[in-house]
Design a protein that fits this description.
This protein is of the alpha/beta class. The protein folds into two domains: about 200 residues, Rossmann fold; about 100 residues, Magnesium chelatase subunit I, C-Terminal domain (Helicase, Ruva Protein, domain 3, Orthogonal Bundle). The chain is about 45% helix and about 15% strand. It has 14 helices and eleven strands. A hairpin with a 2-residue loop joins strand 6 and strand 7. The protein is globular.
């Protein structure tokens, strides 16, 4: 553990409050969503934002790019979008006054710090896979050459849960690449009144740039320096293993309602999310409560309900809620 960790955690907590306050000048409400996106950024993860149209998903990501002083690109996913439209393409250059020709790679919009993949389920799997490969490997390979993506690199993808006609839902293996599935709900009544007041008047807000890319990379290292006890690690593993219907210790409501459960990546993200949330609060200690706070966003898209669950009207969120109540905290030795 670094000697400067307590001081760095204090900086993270101060930056957290400053970022939320600055984004709050444009985005009304959605504080939990902002927290979850910041957790994913500190944990080097990617987010899938799920919500009906008009909830400011795109505006939130755009504001985040400004406040964090990062390179920002937006791609509107459509059925005719090709992989090269995301990663880039090779063009043929002819030297002036010569017959010599060379191939030159023109980088696509994925070469940025913060990429907004708007309505990712609108494009075919081939294009989805090109983006998800870049998310996983942090590089693009074309023509036998490898091009590294700039760091830090995050993908915040949006998806409309209502209109499914003409969409290509992300397969489970691709969903697993996203650290969080963040659900954006309708604003409260007073918040919606404030939205109307702000968006129907002449109002321009210039957001301050509060933190740079190199500083974010430094904060990411601080998050990974935070120690985690065996007690918390065992709790993360117990939560994940109990989502698997094939495990003997899994509860009956899991065996009856799930086709498959979460894989090892879920446990990794539970630990990282708990660390990141503790960091955002300026704490050096990570508790099981930090794990529970982020369990829904980490696990919901990593389990699959079966026909029995569909018939009973049971969804993944209800299963995770019951599981959080069912799994006890281990003792201090992690047993």
């Amino acid at each position: 553990m670094s000697e400067n960790l307590p001081e760095n955690l204090k900086k993270i907590a101060e930056a957290h409050q400053a970022i939320k306050a600055e984004i709050g000048n444009v985005i009304v409400g959605q504080k939990d969503v902002i927290d979850q996106v910041l957790i994913a950024i500190l944990a080097r993860g990617h987010c899938l934002l799920l919500g009906v149209p008009g909830l400011a998903k795109t505006l939130l990501v755009s504001c985040l790019g400004e406040v964090l002083d990062l390179g920002f690109n937006r791609v509107q996913f459509t059925p005719d979008l090709m992989p090269s439209d995301i990663t880039g393409t090779e063009i043929l250059d002819e030297e002036q006054g010569s017959i010599r020709r060379t191939l030159r790679f023109v980088k696509g919009p994925v070469f940025t710090n913060l990429l907004l993949a708007d309505e990712i389920n609108r494009t075919p799997p081939k294009t989805q896979a090109a983006l998800l490969e870049a998310m996983q490997e942090n590089m693009v390979t074309t023509g036998g050459k490898t091009f590294e993506l700039p760091q830090p690199f995050f993908v915040l993808a949006t998806q409309n849960p209502i209109e499914q006609e003409g969409t290509y839902p992300l397969p489970e293996a691709q969903l697993d690449r996203f650290m969080f599935l963040v659900r954006m709900d309708y604003p409260k009544r007073d918040e919606e009144i404030q939205v109307l007041r702000q968006t129907t008047a002449n109002r321009e807000v210039e957001l301050k740039r509060l933190i740079t890319g190199p500083e974010i990379i430094e904060l990411q290292h601080c998050v990974r320096d935070i120690p985690v006890s065996e007690h918390v690690l065992a709790y993360c593993i117990d939560l994940v293993r109990n989502t698997r219907p094939g495990e003997p210790e899994s509860p009956d409501f899991v065996k009856d309602n799930l086709t498959f459960g979460a894989g090892p990546r879920a446990g990794q993200y539970l630990v990282l999310a708990a660390k990141a949330w503790a960091a955002l609060e300026g704490r050096i200690n990570v508790s099981c409560a930090d794990v529970r706070r982020n369990a829904l966003a980490v696990l919901t898209h990593r389990i699959a309900c079966n026909f029995h669950a569909a018939g009973e009207g049971i969804d993944a969120k209800q299963i995770i809620d019951r599981l959080i109540k069912y799994v006890p905290e281990p003792d201090s030795d992690g047993v």
